[in-house]
Amino acid sequence: MYYQLIRKTAQKISPKAENYPRYTLYKWFLLTRSGYNSILTVAGDSVLFYVQSDENIYNIPYRMKGGKQFVCLNYHDYGGLY
Amino acid sequence: MRGVKFAAKISYLLPVDCFILSRQNFGITLLLSFSSLVAGDPLKIKNLIRLFALLSCFAPVVLQAQDNTSHINFDFYGDTIALQLDPSFRVSFNEPLSDQSVKAFNDKMSSSATSRLSRRFSRTNLNLNWMTGCTTSL
Q1: Contact A40/B at CB under 8 A
Q2: Is the CB of residue A52 less than 8 Å from the CB of residue A69?
């Protein structure tokens, strides 16, 4: 729910269609400043945005870092390439 | 708020009687005491002219300051969210994606006025964050 608020705010400040990396960076910045543990990974022209979650989530990429699970929040924007 | 501060300063600087009545959308409204206008005292009339001259100098500054802030509104599950954004919060990002460009973006955002506000009201500072000692990684 809080992420949806962040997402909508970022969309208003920097629309996704206008500049996708900037839109993702705004989400990352706002979520991080809100106290959530998040990660950005950059690979070529793609930027993947992860947030820490201990819940069991299926069909969404995740990565482990420091023994903690980080779930990808913008996987769908790349059409499931990763 | 700047307009009100300017008006407050003006009211102290000038010998005429003036009071801040209200802050309108496009500046400030001053209520001049009736005696200043009709008393016919040349000194007070001269001061009144000074006041208007001074206000005309500050008006563009006040208008400029107000135009810089932008507002965003959106619907959030039936509630209207209205946010006032400082222009420094709008950071451009046209460089190719890299660690350096992301760090540069983060630095710009961190130095923005809204960011200082977000730090002040962040969940961590309100002790609502259940993840203690969390760090940010690029």
Answers
A1: yes
A2: yes
